Each structure stands twice: as structure tokens, then as C-alpha cells.
Amino acid sequence: MELEEMKKVWQALSEKLDQKEKLSGILIHEMYKTKVKKSVNILVGYEILSAVICLLALPIIGWVFFANTHWLFRFSMLYWGLFSLTGAIWSAAKANLLSKLDEVGDIKNNIKVINTYAVWIRKEKLYLLFPVVIGTIPLTIIYWLYAKPWHWVFMFALFALAIFVSLWSYKRLYDRNIRNIQQNLNELAELDD
Prior knowledge:
92% of the residues lie in helices and 0% in strands. By secondary structure, it is mostly helical. It is rod-shaped, with a radius of gyration of 26 Å.
């Protein structure tokens, strides 16, 4: 009789343990999904903010273009206007790619999407330097010819700020969030297997 009771108690405890393991598996799964969603939302928000800033720069660039008559300055503003418009389109394309991440969908597809996004960001870091240098050459020539000494201080501070914000956004924002998403998606893939 005692052996039967012990078997029943053992089986009840085993069932409770299985339920707790299933519940902890579900909670861990949801925790990883929440981390992925948070990092994706940060990246999408930053891409949308980048597109909006690029679009808001267009009227300012247009005003500066029509306010000045020097041909080199106008060429530079036209270049930066096209650069800003291209930046807005590129940011919208990246946000669109990130929106393809499906939190309840196929994890393998999500890993593929985030790896594609990571490649895009790596190439953006590499290819963005050349157009920025090309665009600053006419501005530097104009400042060399016509600027007062305090303009150089302003120009130097503006370039230093742009370099700092760029490095911060690529290192702190992009790299960290992409790495978090990749790690969490890999953990989810391992849990599903």
C-alpha cells in the first residue's frame, strides 16, 4: 500500500516538475522575444528619425542654395541636398527591412533578415566616408576663400560633432543592438530545436 502511494506522489511531483519546466521554457522564450522586439524598435525608431532629419534638412539646404550666388557654394548645396534625399530613402529602406522581422514567425528567416541588415550597416560604414569627404571639399574651399576666423572654429566644431555622433551611433546604437538581436535570435533557435 505504501509503495502505491509513493508511486502516486512521485508521479504527481514528476508532473508538477514537467509543468514548471514547460512554464520556464515559455518564459525564457518570451524573454528573448521581448529583447529582440526592444532592440528592433530602437533601430526602427532611429532609422525613422534619420529619415525625418534628412527630409527636414532639405528646406534648409534649399534656402541656403537660393540665398547664395557663388557657383561652388550652390554646387555644394545641390550635392548635400541630393545626399540628404538619398539618406532619407536609404533610412526608409532600412526601416522597411527591419519591419520584415516577424516576432512569431520563422526564426531562421528573422536571422537572415538581421544578418542582411548587419551587412547593410557594415557597407554603409565603409561607403559613407567617400561621399562625405567629396561633399566637404567645396565647403572647405569656400571657407578658405571667404571665411572669418570664427567661422573656422564653427566649422571645426561642426565636423567634430558630426564625427562624434556618427561614431557613437554606429558603435553604440547599431552594433550593440544588432549583436543583441542576433544573440537572442540564436538562443530562440536553440530553444526551438
